[in-house]
Amino acid sequence: NLKLKPSGQAYYRGILSRRLAPEFDSRELSSITRADIKGAVARWATEKSGVRSIPNGLRTLRTIFAWAIEEGLVQVNPCTDPSKIFKVDAPFSGDFLRPDEVVPYLDAVHDRFPRFHAFFRLLIFSGIRLGECIAIEWQDVDYNGRFIEVRHSSWRGIVTSPKSGVSRRVNLSGSMMDSLRDHRRMMSAEALKAGRPLSARVFVNEAGQPVDESKIRKAHFAALKRAGLRHLRVHSLRKTYGSLMVSA
Q1: Could you tell me if 66 and 194 are in contact, meaning their C-beta atoms sit under 8 angstroms apart?
Q2: CA 221 → CA 37, 101, 130, 224, distances in Å?
């Protein structure tokens, strides 16, 4: 699907390579039955991890058969109603920072990685996604209106539109705006010392180039360890924002 973003394409390539190809790559599409699919699902369900991706694998397989029907390669779709083949019953239990853990975490970030302090504050107190935060430019920040215009997202250095496909305005608190002002002063001083102009991107590495995801993740995990907190994904900071909003 040409409309998929690069991250989406990579995700579905993973489904094909990890789930569908090992099971069905050597089979003629027309020979695959619903019983074959149920057998594959039974094997996937015994794996220690990745159970939640099984429905996506089934939906992908359903789409493949739908395309094959349109092309006249098969006559029936054995993967209709994927939820009747497999359904994840357990509720999702994603973890996030509790209110009393936010300050220790951010203090640890400030101590170890001061250039990313505003970055992680923005993730926690705005709810924007990691790739969106990486792609923010100074022209997207409105100090008078106290908001950020989220217009782009970055994935492995590839800049695309946000996940929704459209830009959106994210309102920020006064203290968050102060953090961004402090960050800009820090980046301006760094650029002046290096003899280069201020980068268009808000968050950059020491060379003034766009920061990459791997460096952000390393800083996040190091800050969790320094603060004595459990392991959490970076995406958990977006969930932390949701939790804080509900609490408020």
Answers
A1: no
A2: 39, 14, 14, 5
